[in-house]
Amino acid sequence: MGYFLRNFHILVFAFVFISGAVWVGLNPDQTVTMIKPVVEDAEELAQMAETVYVAVASINFEASVNEAIVVYTAALRMPSMVLERVDHNLKHASERITGLGSHSVAPPSADKLTLREVSAKLKDL
C-alpha cells in the first residue's frame, strides 16, 4: 500500500499519456485539425525569434561598453566632477524648460528652445 501511494503520481502520469495516445490513435483527423493552428503559431514564432536573433547579433555594443568604461573611470577618479557636470546640465535644462513653460503671448525669443531641442538635450544627459 505504501508503494502505491508513494508512486501514485507516476501512475497518473502514465495513465494520462497512455489515454492521450489511444485517443490520438482513434481520432487522427480530429487531432490534425486541433494541432494545425498550434503548429502554424509555433512556426511563426520561430521565424520571429530568428529575425530578432539576427537583429540582436548585428548590434555593435562596443560603443556602449567603451562609454560605460569612460564614465566609470571618470566617476572613480573624480566623482564630484561627474556629479557637478550632471548638476550643471540639469540646471541648464531646467532653466530652458521653465523658459518654455511661460504662458506669454509674445513670440518666442532666440534663447528659448523648441520641444524637440529640449528632448534632444535631455537625451544627451
What would you note in describing this structure?
With 125 residues, this protein is mainly α. It has a domain of 46 residues. Helix content is 82%, strand content 0%. The protein contains six helices and no strands. Helix 4 crosses helix 5 and helix 5 runs antiparallel to helix 6. The longest helix has 30 residues. The protein is elongated, with a radius of gyration of 32 Å. The chain starts with a helix and ends with a helix. The model has no long low-confidence stretch (mean pLDDT 82).
Chain-wise SSE layout:
Blueprint: H1 2-6, H2 8-26, H3 28-57, H4 62-77, H5 79-100, H6 115-124
> For the report, how would you describe the main beta sheet?
none
Alpha-carbon distance between the two ends: 71 Å
Report mean pLDDT, rounded to a whole number. 82
List the secondary-structure elements in sequence, H or E.
HHHHHH
Low-confidence runs of at least 5 consecutive residues:
none
Shape: elongated
Strand segment tally: 0
Keywords: Membrane, Transmembrane, Transmembrane helix
Transmembrane segments: 6-26
Quick structural gist:
It is elongated and about 75 Å long.
